[in-house]
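Let's sit down with a protein and look at its sequence and fold side by side. Please make up or recall a protein chain and show it to me in full. Label the sequence line and the structure token line clearly, so we can match residues to local backbone shapes. Go ahead whenever you are ready, and we will take it from there.
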Amino acid sequence: MSEAKARIKTGRAVGISSFLIGTIIISVFFFTYSFLVAIIGLAFIGIATIANLGIFSILVRQAIKVRNMRKKSLSTAGLLLLNIPVMLVYSNFALTLMNTVIIKFTNDTGSQISDVNIIGCEGGYIEKLDVNESKTVWIAITGDCSIDIDYLSNGERKSEAVAGYVTLSNGARVRHSIDGKDKAIFF
């Protein structure tokens, strides 16, 4: 195999593996909110950027010098460039997750509840929850805040604490059992 073909093969492998590894990292972060995964993701962005740009520049030089490999060299360089918008989208999504609390509310009161107001941060609303029914709400963290709920149960307005303190870059995925008891979680 010629050197030019080997560079193209390497470029394709790096482009595809960068995309796949980045996708795995953002997926694991989405499901775990792990700080370690976030650090690994940041390190990967740096390493992948250097590798992709380095191979990109080699392929562009090759396209200029080796005329019969120009089309394949440039198409592989284009593949490497496609990782830039993907990385930007993934980074934006990770930042959104870091500034969002995803709460799965489950009605454990023993009766249907309605008019569930989520108070604090960006807030939210759930029209009704049947017994043992769950709904997930994404709440943007707008600064230092707490999250509470109030709701109607058997015609009576009740309230309970959900999260005692949340702040920017402190997103989390939590479950909250609505049962009339305060559970002021700090995360």
In short: The longest strand covers residues 156-166. The chain has two domains: 3-98, 100-186. The chain has a mean pLDDT of 93. Residues 35-65 form the longest helix (31 residues).
